[in-house]
């Protein structure tokens, strides 16, 4: 009992040893509120800044959509115009009356666009007029929300779209449609021959006989036919002997000679030698023709003399082989 009274008297006395502890727990409500405010101030500032930044970005996106629709309201096929329209439901998704009015205007405009435009619908028809009206109404509501006060008639009629740009867009659409028809096989690509190539210049007299003609790349089959023609003529040269001429042999020789004009159409020297043989029909003309044909396929017939070419071996119907000249 006396101990308790002593402790109480000691606490009520002038504070000495217990003074710091007593003051530590002696906080007022205002002091606590100040500490909480100081501790929460940075977090509150960050939250306010984030809110303001979000509002700023939201307004920036809405402004981009509004300005894009205003700039392309006469070019409804523009890619940015279509992109801005499709973002309306995302950017104006609020539950307030202005956002709902914008979404309703966009829904009305979209319902009209989903109705196919008549194929025989000329520019300025009812379908186009309704499109302009509903687009102008949508842009007008967006402008009111963002602080741009434009008249409905101003948005609808005051748009600059030169006819040159219209013609270029229509030409691009038409060209794309035609290319799709050609690539899909629904239409063929028209072609027309305007002129034929001129024949090659005639070489100087004797020039082709001095120069060896080189076969063109990719003409292996033509070279083979030329060589075959040369060997056949060389094989049938015995027809020039009147004593051994047979009708079938003469026909075979004429057949080969007629092929020369086509196979050597580019060789003026061969054609000249062929004309000489047709006019004279002498063995010397035939020898000259064969040598000229050999030069066209790089066969070295110059090593053969005229006597070698004129020498013919004939097998008679009866008896041993004989050599005639």
Write a concise synopsis of the structure shown:
63% of the residues lie in helices and 2% in strands. It has 15 helices and two strands.
Characterization of this structure:
- With 325 residues, the chain is mainly alpha-helical.
- It has two domains: 42-116 and 125-165, no CATH class; 207-324, no CATH class.
- It is built from 15 helices and two strands.
- It has helices at residues 2-12, 19-24, 29-71, 79-86, 88-91, 97-113, 126-146, 152-157, 163-183, 207-210, 220-235, 247-263, 268-280, 283-296, 306-310, and strands spanning 312-314, 322-324.
- The protein has a two-stranded antiparallel ribbon with strand order 1-2.
- The N and C termini lie far apart (171 Å).
Mean pLDDT: 76
Q: Biggest β-sheet: count, sense, barrel?
A: 2 strands, antiparallel
Number of strands: 2
Please, how many domains? 2
Distance between the termini: 171 Å
The rounded Rg comes to 52 Å
Could you say which structural class the secondary elements and strand pairing correspond to? Answer: mainly alpha
Low-confidence region ranges: 1-24, 313-325
- The strand order across the widest sheet is 1-2
Bin the helical content. Answer: 55-70%
| DSSP summary: helix tally | 15
Give the DSSP E fraction (strand runs of 2 or more residues).
under 5%
Q: What letter string, H or E per element, gives the SSE order?
A: HHHHHHHHHHHHHHHEE
Principal-axes shape call: elongated
């Amino acid at each position: 009992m006396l101990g308790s009274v002593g402790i109480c008297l000691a606490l009520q006395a002038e504070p000495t040893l217990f003074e710091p502890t007593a003051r530590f727990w002696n906080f007022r409500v205002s002091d606590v509120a100040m500490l909480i405010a100081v501790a929460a101030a940075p977090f509150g500032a960050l939250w306010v800044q984030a809110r303001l930044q979000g509002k700023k970005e939201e307004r920036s996106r809405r402004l981009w959509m509004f300005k894009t629709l205003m700039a392309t309201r006469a070019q409804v096929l523009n890619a940015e115009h279509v992109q801005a329209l499709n973002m309306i439901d995302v950017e104006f998704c609020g539950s307030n009356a202005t956002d709902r009015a914008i979404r309703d205007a966009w829904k009305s405009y979209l319902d009209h666009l989903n109705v196919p435009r008549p194929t025989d619908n000329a520019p300025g028809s009812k379908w186009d007029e309704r499109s302009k009206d509903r687009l102008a109404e949508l842009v007008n509501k967006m402008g009111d929300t963002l602080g741009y006060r434009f008249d409905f008639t101003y948005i609808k009629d005051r748009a600059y779209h030169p006819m040159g740009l219209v013609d270029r867009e229509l030409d691009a659409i038409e060209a794309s449609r035609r290319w799709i028809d050609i690539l899909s096989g629904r239409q063929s690509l028209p072609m027309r021959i305007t002129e034929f190539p001129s024949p090659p210049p005639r070489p100087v007299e004797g020039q082709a006989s001095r120069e060896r003609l080189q076969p063109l790349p990719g003409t292996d089959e033509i070279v083979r036919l030329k060589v075959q023609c040369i060997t056949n003529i060389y094989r049938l040269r015995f027809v020039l002997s009147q004593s051994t001429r047979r009708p079938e042999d003469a026909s075979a020789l004429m057949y080969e000679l007629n092929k020369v004009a086509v196979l050597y159409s580019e060789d003026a020297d061969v054609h000249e030698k062929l004309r000489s043989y047709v006019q004279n029909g002498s063995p010397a003309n035939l020898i000259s023709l064969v040598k000229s044909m050999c030069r066209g396929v790089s066969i070295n017939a110059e090593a053969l003399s005229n006597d070698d070419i004129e020498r013919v071996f004939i097998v008679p119907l009866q008896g041993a082989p004989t050599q005639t000249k």
